[in-house]
Amino acid sequence: MEAIAKPQKGETIFVSSASGAVGQMVIGLAHRAGCKVIACAGTDEKVKILRDTFKVEHAFNYKTTDIQDYLSKHEYTMYWDSVAGPTLEAVLATIQNRGRIVGCGGQLHDSRSFLSANHRH
Q: What is the strand order of the sheet 58-61 is part of?
């Protein structure tokens, strides 16, 4: 993360699948670099852990929240992508200009299309 995203103190990163081992590592690295964190997880219990244990500044349940609407209310310049699909599409619509996206793995939601036709070049 540090070599690719080059996080700077005061920046904000969005971390998908944040409650997993990799997401937790990214949260720790981001906080160590002086960054704020937006994180998502798939249950309210995991969101509570992200807030209470990992001190994430903003956390939401991606299953019950409109991802694009939520992200549009928060400025961020980095995205740690572990899921691709609709989450990545929401990021492409809301990340700040000159934002950085780091892909790790990628649990495709639809094997027929990595991105919708709106984001393919």
A: 58-61, 36-41, 12-15, 78-81, 100-103
